[in-house]
TrEMBL record:
Alphabetized InterPro entries for the sequence: DUF7872
Range of residues in the leader sequence: 1-15
Species name: Pleomassaria siparia CBS 279.74
Domain DUF7872: 187-403
Keywords, sorted A to Z: Signal
Name used for this protein in its record: DUF7872 domain-containing protein
Domain of life of the native organism: Eukaryota
Length: 404
């Protein structure tokens, strides 16, 4: 049953009402291209400000009441409902028709978001157990904050376009993320943790929370007076960002965009949960990087080297080389030593020596190799200084405050 559910998600297509809005209508009613520029040129925001003063306000579904004032009394939006603006002047006259198209597209977008939450859950439910099997053989729960998965969800949802095809979503990503993180206000995952041993349960929690957010947001917008400062539909569609032609897309379309970044970010989280860390030895006189968990570079203008190592506490104080894990990162996931060893230290250096900097609260970048996507704790050891006599783990823990 579980595999059937995942397969169902994978083959689902986000659906839109038909017919799609076109820039044609009655012969006597020529219309312009469905673009934000048309919205600006025709001053639709000013038109809507005037319409807000003339429609009959209601206690519920003011969006429908506004549409009724345009001549479309059967224009009902909502979750699992697809309000249809029809064609220009059939029945809504210009310029009100452009506003109705934007409302229709907003309604489509919210329904698509509701479905895409399931897409995101399916993508993660397929990927995370594989990562657990590969690099987290003894998974522990109550380690990784669930908010990390909410961030990954936001990465997927940010690519759901207001209009158009997902293949052109790169230019609308920031708009989508701004909407997801502003208007929809992602659910807080405070004091909850990812269940690495039962990923499905964590994904179910996020799906339930996120879909509740979508439902609550949509209801608030539908019911608010159209010119309400917080939830009015006039503000939602202002500027014409929702004016366009919607197109179908599938889970695969979204997955192809985000899967590499999701995978590398989750790999880092899985290693963090096991308290693996990168040690950077500076000013080393001799260096050997034959082992998969070691990297060496010669320092410019010096006879010394810098050496990186992927380590983990073994026993009371011993640092164990993570050779097998490094092999998996390279052989299966295509990562280089520079990426999984030097990459975390570059993130550490760039962000003022702050551990585990996460600049992706609003969503991961599409570039899986971007700084900090894969991240681990960093311990700096200057080999030119007198030894403290402590083992690596104790030094990193006691002198640098690392939780290792």
């Amino acid at each position: 049953m579980r595999s059937q559910l995942i397969f169902a998600f994978a083959t689902t297509t986000l659906a839109f009402p038909t017919p799609f809005p076109q820039s044609t209508g009655a012969d006597s009613c020529p219309s312009k291209a469905l673009t934000p520029q048309t919205w600006i040129d025709l001053k639709i925001d000013d038109f809507l400000a005037g319409a807000a003063k003339n429609y009959t306000k209601t206690t519920t579904n003011n969006v429908q009441a506004l549409a009724a004032s345009f001549g479309a009394p059967n224009f009902f939006c909502g979750l699992d409902s697809f309000c249809n603006a029809g064609q220009p002047c059939l029945p809504i006259e210009l310029p009100a028709w452009y506003a109705a198209i934007a409302i229709q597209n907003w309604n489509n977008y919210m329904n698509n978001m509701n479905t895409a939450i399931g897409f995101a859950s399916s993508i993660l439910s397929l990927k995370l157990p594989e990562i657990v099997q590969d690099v987290f053989p003894d998974p522990q729960d109550n380690i990784t904050p669930l908010k990390n998965m909410v961030t990954i969800f936001g990465s997927v949802l940010g690519f759901v376009p207001f209009t158009g095809a997902v293949a052109t979503a790169a230019g609308t990503l920031q708009k989508g993320l701004a909407f997801v993180n502003g208007r929809l206000k992602p659910p807080a995952a405070t004091d909850r943790f990812l269940a690495w041993s039962d990923v499905a349960s964590s994904m179910a929690d996020i799906v339930r929370d996120y879909q509740a957010v979508v439902s609550t947001s949509m209801t608030a917008i539908l019911n608010a007076p159209v010119d309400d400062a917080d939830n009015g539909i006039n503000g939602i569609i202002s500027g014409g960002n929702f004016l366009g032609v919607s197109q179908n897309f599938t889970q695969t379309d979204l997955q192809n965009i985000v899967i590499d970044s999701i995978t590398r970010n989750a790999l880092g989280l899985a290693l963090q949960a096991q308290k693996m860390f990168v040690t950077r030895f500076s000013n080393v006189n001799t260096c050997n990087d034959e082992d998969q968990n070691m990297l060496c570079t010669k320092n410019d203008g010096s006879s010394t080297f810098t050496q990186w190592a992927l380590l983990r506490r073994e026993g009371d104080a011993n640092a164990e080389s993570q050779i097998d894990t490094s092999k998996v990162l390279m052989d299966k996931y295509g990562m280089t030593k520079l990426e999984f060893l030097k990459g975390p230290t570059d993130c550490f250096d760039t962000n003022g020596k702050k551990q585990l900097t996460n600049p992706f609260d609003t969503g991961l970048p599409t570039d899986a190799k971007a700084a900090c996507v894969f991240n681990l704790l960093v311990c700096d050891i200057d080999s030119s200084r007198p030894s403290s006599g402590k083992g690596i783990v104790n030094f990193c823990k006691e002198d640098q405050g690392l939780d290792v």
